[in-house]
Automatic annotation (TrEMBL):
<dbReference type="Pfam" id="PF02837">
    <property type="entry name" value="Glyco_hydro_2_N"/>
</dbReference>
<dbReference type="GO" id="GO:0019391">
    <property type="term" value="P:glucuronoside catabolic process"/>
</dbReference>
<dbReference type="GO" id="GO:0030246">
    <property type="term" value="F:carbohydrate binding"/>
</dbReference>
<feature type="domain" description="Glycoside hydrolase family 2 catalytic">
    <location>
        <begin position="270"/>
        <end position="584"/>
    </location>
</feature>
<dbReference type="InterPro" id="IPR013783">
    <property type="entry name" value="Ig-like_fold"/>
</dbReference>
<dbReference type="Pfam" id="PF00703">
    <property type="entry name" value="Glyco_hydro_2"/>
</dbReference>
<dbReference type="InterPro" id="IPR006101">
    <property type="entry name" value="Glyco_hydro_2"/>
</dbReference>
<dbReference type="InterPro" id="IPR006103">
    <property type="entry name" value="Glyco_hydro_2_cat"/>
</dbReference>
<dbReference type="InterPro" id="IPR023230">
    <property type="entry name" value="Glyco_hydro_2_CS"/>
</dbReference>
<feature type="domain" description="Glycoside hydrolase family 2 immunoglobulin-like beta-sandwich">
    <location>
        <begin position="180"/>
        <end position="268"/>
    </location>
</feature>
<protein>
    <recommendedName>
        <fullName>Beta-glucuronidase</fullName>
        <ecNumber>3.2.1.31</ecNumber>
    </recommendedName>
</protein>
<dbReference type="GO" id="GO:0004566">
    <property type="term" value="F:beta-glucuronidase activity"/>
</dbReference>
<keyword id="KW-0378">Hydrolase</keyword>
<keyword id="KW-0326">Glycosidase</keyword>
<dbReference type="InterPro" id="IPR006104">
    <property type="entry name" value="Glyco_hydro_2_N"/>
</dbReference>
<comment type="similarity">
    <text>Belongs to the glycosyl hydrolase 2 family.</text>
</comment>
<dbReference type="InterPro" id="IPR006102">
    <property type="entry name" value="Ig-like_GH2"/>
</dbReference>
Length: 587
């Protein structure tokens, strides 16, 4: 599914703003067939949970309804009209007046509906979007629902971050010509100094393409729905020095251009060789963070001010990369990374495929993670669909150099290999050009993990000094080094430390190595850095986390997870300067 855009042949109307809002049980049996009876107004984009100061809304499990009136521009006669939802977390149903036009499961990828036959150019219609926040054993991420003694439904899940829900990204109305570009795929390569762009355009008629440089000059062109464009002395997309060309795909009928679609293109290569990951043939070392889409009040709501600020803060630290832990981020984030040369490890929402860690909850669920009594075929199919939708959405982003298909699964358990092997194959089938990885959990050591050999790069999340060897950095240093050397010796693959860190209360200091102090956080990071510098297979370090973030309720969480290098409102803890010194060489 193509990203909607304004072009000479397409128009785009943004439907963000205040929508009428109601919980399912407040609004009657079939709220979508009429006007919602409610006083509540919900901002879009935003998670709804923290907006209303109302526990019933924050803790609601099930459907909520968003509704607004939409006018179709009168100039759209003869055009196809589509509604596109960038994300409905976790399940969405879209109604135009009384008609159901789209349904989608998966909270972090887009979906759309063609509504041409239901609307009139110049006329109005009622757009209603139902959003369900329920996680089940067959959703990605998975979860469980229990009922309390007094009859309330409660959502349980095995991931740390809070289960924010709603319409946290934009909603669009757009026009597209009857015969149009339906998909574009670009893959870049290098032949000496010549850039090679293989393209494929799905369209219902003849196609021609032009590749423009950043000044708008045509550097290559070609007829045909697929082919190769060659760019002598190409300017490469490099980490920290992005350069984007633009592929203009045109659909031509009877000599006239009936549709035109622009796709940014970065020319770069990615390759794993031995224990190195090469971008444009040069070894790349990841410096950066695991992040979250998380801010006060708006939850996971996309916010361009926070987005730019986060990127600038990462740059202030000298970061060159981040991981979209633990779900695909808003497309605007990847566009920004493309334009600014930030390297991205792009992750699915497959977090919590692990019944061995409880996070202090009682689920009543079985202990064996994989198989029909845990996460079986239906979960794997949902996971496969999450991979398909991630790659379909993000395949053309030069910033994305690697797919991470899961975070901290129970990869030490029987059944893990049968579960993951087909998913790794699927990922490679869908994209043969990018390495595939997963983020490994400490319980699955280099001796007990059963899936690491399936992947190109091994990402490790480790908490020596925090969850293990708590407060004892000397032991942490020894154990971390022994483990990394074990991974290096057994697999001979590149290792990226995708999580390491310590919960830290901003402003708390001590001369001793006391947990929760800023001093401990900096000492822990410095301990890990010494080890990374001694182990050649380590090709990257991404601190957990960029900023403090909201979590599920837990006695070990004080208003959320405090492992941020920045507070939730983006003030630096002392660790930020340690990173700036190491990554940027500046005080
Ligand atoms: C890791 C998870 C991450 C958590 C982190 C923590 O991957 O989502 O937030 O631990 O406990 O296991 O801080």
């Amino acid at each position: 599914m193509l990203r909607p855009q304004n072009s000479p042949t397409r128009e785009l109307v943004n439907l963000d703003g205040l929508w009428r809002f109601a919980l399912d049980d407040d609004a009657g049996p079939e709220p979508w067939t009429g006007v919602l009876r409610t006083d509540l107004e919900a901002p879009v984009p935003a998670s709804y949970n923290d907006v209303f100061a109302d526990d019933a809304i924050r803790d609601h499990v099930g459907w909520v309804w968003y509704q607004r009136t939409v006018r179709v521009p009168r100039g759209w006669a003869g055009e196809r009209v589509r509604v596109r939802i960038d994300a409905a977390t976790h399940e969405g149903r879209v109604y135009v007046d009384g008609s159901l036009v789209a349904e989608h499961v998966g909270g972090y990828t887009p979906f759309e509906a063609d509504v041409t036959d239901l609307v009139e150019p110049g006329g109005e219609f009622r757009l209603t979007i139902g959003v369900n926040n329920e996680l089940t054993p067959t959703t990605i991420p998975p979860g469980f629902t229990t009922t309390t003694d007094d009859g309330r439904r409660k959502q349980l899940y095995r991931h740390d971050f809070y289960n924010y829900a709603g319409l946290a990204r934009s909603v669009w109305l757009y026009s597209v010509p009857a015969v149009s570009v339906e998909d574009v795929t670009v893959v870049s390569g290098l032949d000496g100094t010549t850039g090679v762009v293989e393209y494929e355009v799905a369209a219902g008629a003849a196609v021609r393409v032009r590749l423009l440089d950043a000044e708008g000059a045509t550097v290559a062109e070609r007829e045909g729905a697929s082919g190769e464009l060659r760019v002598p002395d190409a300017r490469l997309w490099r980490p920290g020095a992005a350069y984007l060309y633009e592929l203009v795909a045109e659909v031509v009928e009877d000599g006239a251009v009936v549709d035109s679609y622009s796709q940014p293109v970065g020319i770069r290569t990615v390759e794993v060789r031995g224990t190195e990951l090469l971008i444009n043939g040069e070894p790349f070392y990841f410096k950066g963070f695991g992040k979250h889409e998380d801010t006060a009040v708006r939850g996971k709501g996309h916010d361009p001010a926070y987005m730019v600020h986060d990127f600038r803060l990462m740059d202030w630290c000298g970061a060159n990369s981040f991981r979209t832990s633990h779900y695909p981020y808003a497309e605007e984030v990847l566009d920004y990374a493309d334009r600014h040369g930030i390297v991205v490890i792009d992750e699915t929402a497959a977090v919590g495929l692990n019944l061995a860690i409880g996070g202090g909850m009682r689920t009543g669920a079985v202990e064996r993670t994989f198989g029909e009594d845990g996460f079986g075929k239906a979960t794997r199919e949902a996971h496969a669909q999450a991979i398909r939708e991630l790659i379909q959405r993000d395949k053309n982003h030069p910033s994305v150099v690697m797919w991470c298909i899961t975070n901290e699964p129970a990869s030490f358990e029987d059944g893990a290999r049968d579960y993951f092997a087909p998913l790794v194959d699927l990922t490679r089938e869908l994209d043969a050009t990018r390495p595939v990885t997963y983020a490994n959990l400490v319980f699955a050591t280099f001796e007990t993990d059963t899936i690491a050999d399936l992947f190109d790069v091994i990402c490790l999340n480790r908490y020596y000094g925090w969850y293990n060897d708590t407060g004892d950095l000397a032991s942490a240093e020894a154990h971390l080094e022994a483990e990394l050397r074990g991974w290096e010796a057994r697999f001979g693959k590149p290792l990226v430390m995708t999580e390491y860190g310590a919960d830290t209360l901003a402003g708390l200091h001590s001369v001793n190595a006391q947990l929760w102090t800023e001093d401990f956080q900096t000492a822990l990071l410095e301990t890990y850095h010494r080890v990374f510098d001694r182990v050649p297979a380590v090709i990257g370090e991404q601190v957990w986390n960029f900023a403090d973030f909201q979590t599920m309720a837990g006695v070990f969480r004080v208003d959320g997870n405090k492992k941020g290098v920045f507070t939730r409102d983006r003030r630096p803890k002392a660790a930020a300067r340690v990173l700036r010194k190491r990554w940027r060489g500046q005080d």
